[in-house]
Amino acid sequence: MTNLDTIFRTMVDLWTAHDDATRTGDFEAMITTKQRLDSARVDALRQLRLS
């Protein structure tokens, strides 16, 4: 598994957690998961650029 695969799997997990937080109204978790998603997105773009 490449770094990019790992990043994308992490992003899927984070989207799932973000959706769960949205459904339950957990605003702190929504913000945290959104910030982590943004960070993972940047990591994915860096990996693509290095490929």
Secondary-structure map:
Blueprint: H1 3-24, H2 27-50
Helix pairs in contact: 1-2
- Uncertain parts: none
Q: What profile does the largest beta sheet have?
A: none
Whole-angstrom Rg = 12 Å
Q: What quaternary form is this? A: single chain
Q: Could you give the distance between the termini? A: 14 Å
- What is the N-to-C order of secondary-structure elements (H for helix, E for strand)? HH
How many domains in all?
1
Number of helices: 2
Brief overview:
The chain has helices at residues 3-24, 27-50. It is mainly α and 51 residues long.
Architecture overview:
By secondary structure, the chain is mainly alpha-helical. It has one domain (3-50). It is built from 2 helices and no strands. Helix 1 (3-24) runs antiparallel to helix 2 (27-50). The protein is elongated and about 40 Å long. The two termini are 14 Å apart. 6% of the residues are buried.
Which short descriptors sum up this protein?
single chain, about 50 residues, mainly alpha, 2 helices, about 90% helix, elongated
